Amino acid sequence: MKYVSTRGHAGRPEFCDILLGGLAPDGGLYLPETYPRVSRAELDAWRKLSYAELAFEILSKFITDIPPADLKAICDKTYTAQVYRHARPGDDAAQITPVHWLEKGRLGLLELSNGPTLAFKDMAMQLLGNLFEYVLDKRGETINILGATSGDTGSAAEYAMRGKHGVRVFMLSPHGLMSPFQRAQMYSLQDDNIHNIAVTGMFDDAQDIVKAVSNDAAFKAKYKIGAVNSINWARVAAQVVYYFKGYFGATESSDQQVAFCVPSGNFGNICAGHIARMMGLPVAKLILATNENDVLDEFFRTGVYRPRKAAETRVTSSPSMDISKASNFERFAFDLVGRDPKKVAALWAEVDAGRAFDLSGTPEFARLGEFAFVSGASSHADRLATIRQVYEQYGVTLDTHTADGMKVAWDHAAGLPAGVPLLVLETALPVKFAETIREALGHEPERPADLEGIEKLPQRVEVMAPDVEAVKRFIVERV
User: Which PANTHER family match (predicted)?
Assistant: First the structure.
């Protein structure tokens, strides 16, 4: 399997090369040269597999430069009930991502938050940690990971990489804008290879720094800078797996369809759903849900992609989606414009300059229906009302981001074909956003016993202005 850049760089690298690199040399994102197709026979055969077995089958289609026995061992090591141990009471932790039905056969939650940091990011990040260690050992190399987080990516990356030999992590986060629980998960880690930087700005400021450093080819090469944000293709590939697993959990035969509703900030999660559908997974609808930062919803409704400046980005009670420039959207745009890298490069020249682009009235936007996307947005008031309604009606507490997804799922449920089950992707457990849960329900959310008192642990973090050169100096001083 060879990979191409969304902006047309001439190289055709294999998986292990792009695993360590992040962005393509031209600033684009990597995608497979062609999407592998899955047959009906494969769907039937995969239905009975464990999560680790399914991960191996799917990832084998994207990763052809790791021996199959080694890749299988990595999947088996990653996807265990011991690692993903926080399933809801009554659900089978051995399934890794069980479906929790609210209405049997009609409406369910796809549990993706059972990992060590209680967020869906663990599903891909635990695999990424093991892949990094494997490839670095084989090559005798080291890597310095630079990432940005709006809440959950950071802790998932740090828990996956802590103690891994050959790996250092430098994680940027928006100062004071994550929940206390999220901050504690990251900043309380004392491992020597983990470094936290709190940027006095928004997530987009942190993400811009990561992109600027990654685009400095000389610095990136000298200091061996790698990426774990969802710009890293391996993250997206790993996420494809749980769409298939969710499909099998929600259907009885492979001639049925399913719909997914996905809370979306950086577009990585739902991009994996798009790729699963392109591979042949029977997906009737991909329902994209945003919060008040509705850049993506605006595009799917109007054809206008209008990234906001940091000052225009709203601070909300679903902070992991407080994003106004969705990095992974470029991957979908590549498919939307017929995989024409010149068109993508022209569009993102506008985005990188802080301007909007408008595809309304174009043949490209007219094709949008081929990809099964619909979208909607949610507000703080919607969030509170949804959390209350789900708790009162089903006895289930949702986190704030999943509540955004549930609200938008309800908005679109009537438009689905008869008999199509609707799965809302659970993106975190509610304890990560206790303040809003208290506001909605008047009591504390449940907390796993192994994370009691985490906010009281000593924290280690460097607060810095959003300055690319200052971040570079910080890295240089510690490698």
Answer: THREONINE SYNTHASE FAMILY MEMBER, THREONINE SYNTHASE-LIKE 2
Identity of the amino acid at 264: S
Non-local (6+) Cβ contacts of 406 within 8 A are: 261, 386, 390, 398, 424
Name the fold adopted by 95-117+234-441.
Rossmann fold (3.40.50)
Q: Are 156 and 117 in contact (CB under 8 A)?
A: yes
Q: How far is CA 375 from CA 95, 181, 256, 294, 414, in A?
A: 29, 29, 23, 10, 14
Q: Output the pTM of the full model.
A: 0.92
Secondary structure tally for the chain: helices H, strands E: 19, 15
Structure tokens at 93: 């932790």
Angle 224-229-230 from CA coordinates, rounded to 5°:
130
Residue-wise pLDDT tens digits, 411-430: 999 999 999 999 999 999 99
% helix, strand, coil for the chain, step of 5: 45, 15, 40
What is the three-class DSSP state of 121? helix
- For residue 165, name the pLDDT band (cuts at 50, 70, 90): confident
Give the residue numbers marked as catalytic.
121
**H-only helix segments in 162-232:** 180-187, 203-215, 217-222
Query: What are the DSSP E strand ranges found in 10-161?
Result: 30-32, 99-103, 107-111, 143-148
Distance CA 231, CA 229 (A): 5
pLDDT tens for each residue of 120-138: 999 999 999 999 999 999 9
φ and ψ at 220, to 5 degrees?
-60, -45
Cβ 308 vs Cβ 298: under 8 Å: no
- By CB neighbour count within 10 A (0-12 exposed, 13-18 middle, 19+ buried), where does 342 fall? exposed
Letter string b/e over residues 197-226, b meaning 16 or more CB atoms within 10 A of that residue's CB: bbbebbbbbbbbbbbebbeeeebbeebbbb
CA distance 319 to 363: 35
Write down how long the chain is: 479
